[in-house]
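Discussion board: Methods & Data

I've been asked by a reviewer to show the raw model output for two of the constructs in my manuscript, not just the figures. I'm not sure how much to include, so I'm pasting the format here to get opinions. Each protein appears as its amino acid sequence followed by a line of discrete structure tokens. Is this the kind of thing reviewers expect to see in a supplement, or should I convert it first? Here is construct A:
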Amino acid sequence: MTLKNLLKPTLFILAASASLWGNAQRPVVSTKYTADPAPMVYNDTIYLYTTHDEDDAEGFKMYDWLLYTSTDMVNWTDHGAVASLKDFKWNPRENGAWAEQVIERDGKFYMYCPIHGNGIGVLVADTPYGPFKDPIGKPLVWQKEHWNDIDPTVFIDDDGQAYMYWGNPDLYYVKLNKDMISYSGDIVKLPKIKDYQEGPWFYKRDGHYYMAFASTCCPEGIGYAMSDSPTGPWEYKGHIMDHNPRSNGNHPGIIDYKGKSYVFGLNYQLLREETKEHKERRSVGAAEMHYNADGTIQELPFWTECVVKQIEPFNPYRRIEAETMSWGYGLKTSKDPDNGRIVVNNIDNGETLTLSGVDFGKKGAKRFKASLANVKEGAEIEIHLDSATGPLVGTLKPKASTGTGFSTTECKLKDAKGRHDLVFLFKGPGKNLMEWDWWEMK
């Protein structure tokens, strides 16, 4: 059974009946299975890099690395795969695109990627969207005597020295050179940190060094340690999120953004809608976190019991990529083979796409335009406020089209004022009603 099928009856009810920006937190991404979140803040935007579990995965089935962006922590834009195992020509494996991290230095973006059993590679790009290319043509780190070289995390200290930590079940680090694609000195193995398993996330805040990590399997929680030095010694401090049987694995990514602190991790929330059996089909979650005066971190409940509030209203008066959403019931996204853009597809009758906290202003929106392709006869998009059963403010009725590329269709809007969740409800005969590239309001 695919993700599209497993979402159908339960999550449709949720999406149709409740405001997404006032309830318990759901997975960040609803159109794919994602894991191992690696957030990066750059130019006032969150770039969330993730790994990708295939829809039919039983064990780990991971080929590429994905990117999502947001400026409000609730609505996310899907940028598709920005790198894959194929970018490492020296890599013999077809599977094993495990937990990565991206960091910026001097206008370049460096992606550190573990390839299970073949060490840790590095890719570099001129933009956070890629394309990412291999600058060294070999692993950056590979201790061939074991398979511990996974889950790299990289941090540049105030003095310019960069460090890369990694490892399961042991924790290692090296000092990276300024070029970020080589290192100096020996690989250092650290003494065991209590409850450490894998997935380290290294950062500094208010003079304290932090090592967050996936705590001992299984199930994994998120633990953390602190130090006065970037190389330790590390003192275990407890849980950011305790071990919980609802999530077999975990992997933290932590940022400060617009005056708040957030931890990202993973759970099996979408999978649990289908089965209680364990399969490696994971979903990225997020939660706001808080520090005490001494720098220690207040423990959080499980992901589904946390609430992430929208930081700022969403502006609809610009061109919006259709793959921007807070929730996308039953939908998929993929790269269009003709124009290379990410589009929303696999759209069936009764499914919805939701954006949270859209600010239409006092005057309100008067017109809606969308770029669509492969439209079935009779397919249309109802535009609702707050839920799929909320006020209907417009209906887009595009002409049927097949194999003619994308074209735009417009409709009038009425009473689209104030701040609301915006829900697009798809109607039409059966499945695969259309493909959707972008939209805008005036």
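Construct B, same format:
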Amino acid sequence: MLGTRLKITAYERQHRSALLELAWYSQWAHKHLDWHKTSQWLDNELGHVLLAWHGDQLVGYIGLSRPIAGWSWIRLLGIRDGRMPGLVVRELCEAAEARCVELGISNIVILMITNWLPTYLRERGFSSEEDIITMSQIGNRLPPSPKVPARIRPAEDQDLADIMMIDRLAFKTPWQLAEYDMWQAFRSAASATVATLDDELIAYQFSTRQEEIGHLARLAVHPKHRRKGIASALMHQLLGDFRNRNLTELSVNTQLSNLPSQRLYERYGFYRNGNDIELWRKRLG
């Protein structure tokens, strides 16, 4: 029996192997790292990671991202199998929330992608904020190419500053990316293209690939250039490119409330596949 004697400490480099081993073997583990491996995230994120110890044994961990505009994501959360999950989650969350208050973080969010967490996070005051839907497209059906003055070309390293600017304008918290996340997304992309108009970068998309399935990971258009067919032009080029590479399926996630995005994807043959995810949130202070 674990009992109630837990010690919460800050993660240090010397704990790396113990955390990675627990994350690998535990069945009670949440991981939402987008384009990162756990080891990469620990080495480069510089977020806030706390560990729960029972004596000398690591029994749990929680990792929060660096905040953007007062919002932080729970990227990692796990406990040792069979070790009183309610207690470990409670004490990790209490310590993490206290640290967030010190840092001026006002909102903590998490994608509810594991079925064991809702009960414990509800007890901590988290609640469902919105639904994220997943859409799929099979066959790469292409409607007529949109007639737009913008030029579509591959993204380059020197575009990242402009891409970051568009991303901040196009997405609200908590969906904005940190600079390191954007760089990692670009490095991991199987397809990365931008739209330019009169040499001004006005939109971009990053997509990944796993075997014969593609995933549209990020698409954003500068607000002043919306409703001009720019997003459609990026989609058309992406689908044509993936079709030439014999990728037969493409997926994308978007908010249930984002009707313009859903209409765009539906025009290109996307349909909801039922793999919906809830975004949960806790307001601090």
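Answer (T.O., handling editor elsewhere):
This is acceptable in a supplement if you add a one-line summary per construct. For B, something like: Residues 85-103 form the longest helix (19 residues).
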